[in-house]
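Figure 3 (text version): structure tokens given as input.
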């Protein structure tokens, strides 16, 4: 049995001798590789944080102290050490552990998280709460160099350096966000590492730190002097300038050294930043060699690892279309907030480097930069995930919509996203965008339509949000931009005749509708590709026909396509049975989207049985000479609205927190 086998919880890590920590780190690393090979997940970041994880659990009691991990994607080691080792193989899967820290999962998870850059403000708040109550616990935030590019992180630093609560900030610097990290701060951090001192330290570890490796009592002042000495001139260090005590950079893979620093910083008043340098993917050759590919791994063979090919994705279709549009029109730009790979922009970034900007994990900056470009006549596309555009909401309204600017939002990962779970679900954008004046919101059902919508959006101008899901799509043959058919703005498309029950799909749920309708002549299918502007003409024609409408959408029902229809019908004084299928008012956990669609009542099987029930109800109503059917209940008798089903299957139980 190794050291890891004796760890039943983090308290056991605290009891280990310093000399055992290295062995524990190496076993932990091995376990993470093993787990990820079976489950996939955030391998490279978790490997890079192994020694830090062990050191934090050696120094802190995470049941009492608060260790706030930013993003939470680097915490596989933390989960293994905090009583979840036997459930690791369920991570990111239906009913299993979450991929990020989640407070309902463990008392050792200080924050429910998944979006970047929140750790500093959250830890700052916790430190304020602690001090207000005179409570005896420590607060430590762990933030990556990528996450530090986010405005919320920088603004929190500004506060922390001003108020100066006692807290530790570990800056885990591996030079990478998902792709190469960007920005001036990043360049500054690179400068630090070419200091002769740092290179010596890398070579010979603690020896080079000679005078820093000093008795406890002297640590604070010595660290300050030492830090000053390393950087020339010291006042150039932005962290010092922001009012933090700064220590580093140190080797983040030397676990003993990490323990030493963390222990001594714990004794200091005020906020201290410990800057550690780590290697993403550390200890697993392929991941170290290509940490960008191995940032988020699919399952792999440990001994012969190969990154799994994904096939043609919606993101690729967008990236290819963006390349073509930028070649055809020299005012087209693409802006990404740190998601070059995920948004399908690797090729674009190489072909059009002059009109490609990665602004870092700063969605707000992405949107307002686009506004600036558009104000000067350029045609920017903001390529952004649905879940991350939430960070740029005010900017969409205040900076883009008010000016009615020519900005296209290319929204990826719209819908349920699978393993990333509730922090990353792309299900709110329809609701939050529909309310914004000037903005159009549409969703293509295939690649030709994606091309047509992008092209039409750029030609017609004004703000446009186009969205597509995570996952694969059938590629379309290459065609010059001129040959891409444009889309008549605000129109739907009738794909199948039938007017008793009419299914309205949106993007990928058009296929669901077609599958559910089958050959039944009573069931019609419409591609409701614009949720704004709505095709009112077609909608009113459906009202005239007295159809029962079923909207199917892979997004939140409140404020979604179905809601839009009902609002419009009400505004036109029409009343029609409308069944809204989609995601009710709950957070949906990680899992397999296809299975979740069925459970939530809008997968092909669920829709098919719903349609059968609706047709029967219509029949009964006609035989009984009754009023038109107001559907919303299954024929089984028990009221099973979407909300009730979802509450059964999907409620994420977030316990109320006790006072501490
Ligand atoms: N935008 C926001 C607001 N949150 C997240 N999580 C992302 C984008 C996507 N994202 C990640 S992990 C990550 C990004 C950009 C890179 C973070 O870099 P950092 O950590 O240096 O902080 P490292 O990966 O260990 O180097 C996820 O969605 C998981
Ligand atoms: Mg990083």
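Below: residues designed for each position.
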């Amino acid at each position: 049995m190794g050291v890891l086998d004796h760890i039943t919880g983090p308290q056991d890590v605290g009891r280990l001798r310093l000399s055992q920590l290295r062995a524990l780190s190496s076993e932990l690393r091995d376990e993470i590789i093993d787990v990820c090979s079976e489950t996939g997940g955030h391998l490279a970041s978790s490997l890079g944080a192994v020694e830090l994880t062990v050191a934090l659990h050696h120094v802190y009691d995470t049941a009492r102290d608060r260790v706030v991990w930013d993003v939470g994607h680097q915490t596989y080691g933390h989960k293994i050490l905090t009583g979840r080792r036997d459930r690791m193989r369920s991570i990111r899967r239906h009913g299993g552990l979450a991929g990020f820290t989640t407070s309902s999962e463990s008392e050792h998870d200080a924050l429910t998280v998944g979006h970047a850059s929140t750790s500093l403000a959250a830890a700052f708040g916790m430190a304020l709460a602690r001090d207000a109550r005179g409570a005896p616990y420590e607060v430590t935030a762990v933030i990556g160099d990528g996450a530090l590019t986010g405005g919320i992180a920088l603004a929190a630093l500004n506060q922390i350096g001003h108020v100066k609560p006692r807290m530790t900030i570990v800056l885990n610097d591996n030079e990478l966000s998902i792709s190469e990290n960007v920005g001036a701060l990043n360049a500054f951090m690179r400068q630090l590492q070419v200091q002769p001192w740092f290179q010596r330290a890398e070579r010979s570890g603690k020896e080079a730190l000679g005078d820093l490796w000093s008795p406890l009592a002297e640590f604070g002042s010595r660290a300050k002097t030492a830090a000053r000495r390393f950087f020339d001139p010291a006042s150039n260090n932005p962290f010092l300038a922001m009012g933090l005590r700064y220590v580093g950079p140190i080797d983040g893979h030397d676990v003993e050294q990490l323990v030493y620093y963390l222990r001594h910083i714990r004794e200091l008043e005020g906020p201290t930043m410990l800057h550690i340098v780590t290697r993403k993917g550390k200890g697993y050759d392929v991941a170290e060699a290509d940490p960008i590919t191995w940032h988020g791994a699919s399952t792999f063979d440990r001994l012969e690892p190969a990154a799994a090919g994904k096939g043609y994705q919606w993101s690729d279709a967008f990236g290819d279309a963006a390349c073509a549009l930028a070649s055809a029109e020299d005012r087209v730009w693409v802006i990404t907030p740190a998601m070059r790979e995920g948004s399908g922009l690797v090729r674009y970034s190489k072909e059009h480097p002059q009109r490609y900007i990665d602004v870092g994990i700063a969605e707000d900056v992405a949107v307002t930069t686009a506004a600036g470009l558009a104000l000067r006549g350029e045609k920017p596309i903001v390529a952004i995930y649905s879940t991350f555009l939430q960070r740029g909401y005010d900017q969409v309204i205040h900076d883009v919509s008010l000016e009615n600017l020519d900005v296209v939002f290319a929204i990826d990962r719209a819908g349920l996203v699978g393993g990333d779970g509730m922090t990353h679900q792309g299900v709110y954008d329809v609701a939050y965008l529909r309310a914004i004046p000037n903005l159009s919101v549409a969703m293509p059902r295939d690649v030709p339509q994606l091309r047509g919508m992008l092209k039409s959006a750029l030609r017609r101008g004004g703000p446009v949000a186009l969205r597509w899901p995570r996952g694969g799509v059938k590629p379309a043959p290459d065609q010059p931009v001129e040959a891409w058919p444009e889309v008549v703005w605000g129109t739907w498309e009738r794909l199948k005749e039938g007017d008793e029950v009419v299914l309205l799909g949106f993007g990928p749920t058009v296929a669901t509708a077609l599958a559910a309708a089958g050959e039944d002549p009573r069931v019609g299918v419409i591609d409701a590709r614009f949720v704004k502007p709505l095709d009112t003409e077609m909608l009113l024609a459906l009202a005239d026909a007295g159809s029962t409408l079923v909207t199917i959408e892979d997004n939140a029902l409140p404020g979604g396509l179905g809601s839009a229809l009902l609002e419009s019908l009400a505004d036109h004084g029409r009343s029609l049975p409308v069944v809204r299928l989609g995601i009710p008012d709950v957070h949906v956990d990680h899992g397999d989207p296809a299975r979740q669609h069925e459970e939530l009542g809008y997968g092909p099987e669920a829709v098919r049985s719903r349609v059968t029930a609706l047709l029967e109800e219509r029949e009964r109503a006609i035989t009984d000479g009754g009023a038109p059917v107001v559907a919303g209940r299954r024929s089984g008798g028990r009221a099973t609205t979407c909300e009730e089903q979802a509450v059964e299957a999907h409620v994420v139980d977030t316990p109320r927190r006790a006072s501490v």
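The chain has three domains: 4-289, 314-483, 493-658.
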